[in-house]
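Q: I'm building a small set of examples for a reading group on sequence design. Run inverse folding on the following structure and report the sequence directly after it, with nothing in between.
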């Protein structure tokens, strides 16, 4: 009984440290499959390292249609977001301005804006050679986010302050096991629109700190 209790406590600590609010223990990533977006366009999902990023065309917080492939030629940072995710709230600045709709941000975690120059040798997240995209995959009700959700999220965290930052509503089409498993984390796309680093999910294959962010200066030079 004592061993079982210690095991339960240990697992609880791991969950708290993760601070995700998403339990992926029984969520095996699905194979790549075709997704038809709201505009009728079909893309392969989820994104795969070494392959072109899915050419998403989604509505942003301003109500405008954004086509990701139009940013080819710049380095793109994509953050898959669940609006109830503690880490997502923290990376957006939740420990400074408060979590979205009262969500408790993960403790001890600063915004990605603060971490970015620390791990990229001084490069700012808002460098005009970079595009930062927050891809909302789940809204506050764990449904596909709408434009109104994107607008509310962007307003709460002040994302509209920067010209290179976009908050996109994934919509119901992207809801599913693969999207769920991408939260939280970041993906890095090079100037040729190829996914070069994927540091997403509870147990990412690559590290945000030692792989993804340090790769940014290299991609800017390519």
């Amino acid at each position: 009984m004592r061993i079982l209790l210690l095991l339960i406590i240990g697992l609880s600590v791991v969950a708290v440290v993760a601070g995700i609010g998403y339990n992926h223990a029984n969520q095996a990533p699905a194979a790549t499959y075709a997704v038809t977006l709201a505009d009728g366009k079909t893309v392969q999902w989820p994104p795969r390292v070494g392959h072109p990023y899915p050419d998403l065309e989604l509505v942003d917080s301003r109500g405008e249609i954004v086509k990701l492939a139009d940013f080819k030629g710049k380095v793109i940072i994509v953050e898959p977001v669940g609006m109830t995710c503690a880490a997502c709230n923290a990376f957006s600045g939740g420990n400074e301005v408060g979590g979205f709709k009262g969500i408790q941000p993960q403790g001890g975690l600063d915004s990605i804006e603060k971490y970015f120059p620390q791990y990229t040798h001084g490069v700012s997240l808002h460098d005009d050679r970079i595009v930062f995209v927050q891809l909302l995959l789940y809204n506050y009700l764990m449904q596909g986010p709408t434009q109104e959700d994107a607008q509310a999220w962007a307003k709460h965290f002040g994302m509209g302050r920067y010209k290179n930052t976009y908050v996109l509503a994934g919509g119901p089409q992207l809801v599913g096991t693969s999207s769920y498993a991408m939260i939280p984390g970041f993906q890095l796309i090079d100037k040729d629109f190829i996914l070069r680093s994927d540091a997403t999910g509870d147990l990412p294959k690559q590290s945000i700190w030692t792989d993804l962010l340090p790769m940014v200066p290299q991609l800017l030079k390519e």
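The longest strand covers residues 130-138.
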